[in-house]
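Sample 1 of the test manifest.
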Amino acid sequence: MKAYSEQHHATLQRSLKELPQYTPTEAVWEAIAAQLDTDQVELPLRSAIQQLPSYTPPEHVWDRLANTLSEAPVSSRMRLLRLAPWLAAASVIGLALLFALRSYQQETPEASIVIVYGQEEVLPVNTDWDDDETAIAWVELQYRQQLAALSNQTHDNLLQELHELKEAKSEVQAMLQQYGEDPQIVRLIAKIERERSAVVKKMAQSI
Amino acid sequence: MSIAFKTLSVSLLCFVSWHVMAQTTVQVITKKIEKTFTYRKGYEVNVEGERAEVIVESWDKDDIRILLELTARHPDKAIAERDLDAIKYVADRVKNKIYIRNYLSPNEGSATSSTLSARYTIYVPAHCPVYLKNYFGTIDVSNLLSNIKINSEFSKIGLNNLQGLMDIRTRFGDVIGANLDGDMTLNARRSDITLRDIKGNYDLNAQYGIMKIYGSKDLLSLNISAEKTDVYFFNVNPALFAYNLTAQNGEVKLPNNLKYNIIQNNEQIKRIQFKPTSEYFATITISVSFGDIFISK
């Protein structure tokens, strides 16, 4: 074996002495002290463990261990193949749960649709409910002017009623335009117009 | 034959002839749709009709069955068929709500010219809550034992043999109810109200209508607040109930044999009270402005 000699030994020694020294923090000393205490506590425990009786496993356990160790290691592919039935079952259950949840969320059953053709006779409708609007507007104007002159008001119960009934009539007319001249809707217009007439007559009497 | 008889016969003949000549034959095409949903506890039915006749009844099956008839009437069959397609509908269940509605959606560039209408006949289990909205048409609900909520305009409402909570809002739609047992809240504007054989608790609010209430001996409480409305209360024995009646700018009429107390009586306001001699009684509180109160047998 080749012998080695150290060169510049003195320089090394001086450099080592010049290296900065560090004092460990309190936490380090405390941790060491705690470990020593633990060791102190665990010493009798370790001693007791050493004195515990030991048992030799029976023959069949060694045989089984030997058989298991002698089997060829299972590849990841084989593991996957073995899990395949379980994965399939889990997928089916998952799909069933998803389907059940979807069924709970929404349901659109099949509709049975039948088209039936027929005929009926209808009477013409006289759509003259706007014929008196000019006269009604004149009465309303006279009433408003009188109200403003006598009481300095611009609005009262009769005017409010007239306005509400006029709006209702507009709604009914819009429905007539969309859904046609249905007798039920025409009767509604007739009822509203009768109420409007009563209000206009009251206004006319007070002018 | 007398001249009068001849004149009458000729007039009648002219009248009938005019009617026959004036009549028009229209093609009537109806699309009938039927759907059935399985009912589970917690489900509710929501109906939103437009120009619809809505009939809701209970039955003894655990299904919700919907019969929807969409109709188009026009002298020209092709136009009636085209306009029938413009009436769309929805009938689906989302979570615990079954939604049913119809609406008009004509194809671009073609306004409808037929007379169109929808009719719903809905069968539900008796304990299934029902919420109805209808705009122009009629509503008829009968034989339900669960909550019913109606919000309608220009729709006549019929209620028959109902139990439970009843919440009714109506505008320009008269309400006729019979054999009602439960708690009712009603708000009516420009609608006449007639309720017969009512039991339970009732809070009624009305403007511009006529209200007629026929209370039974099992009526627990009746509170009416009305404006520009005449209120009538009927019972075979009016002395069964306690009354707190207030009429502002109106009149109060009671049976002559009722020993009531006049609390206030002047041009503007009349206030009357009556308390029966029995230990237990229901209280009728009616407050009307610009209308009259009538208590009668």
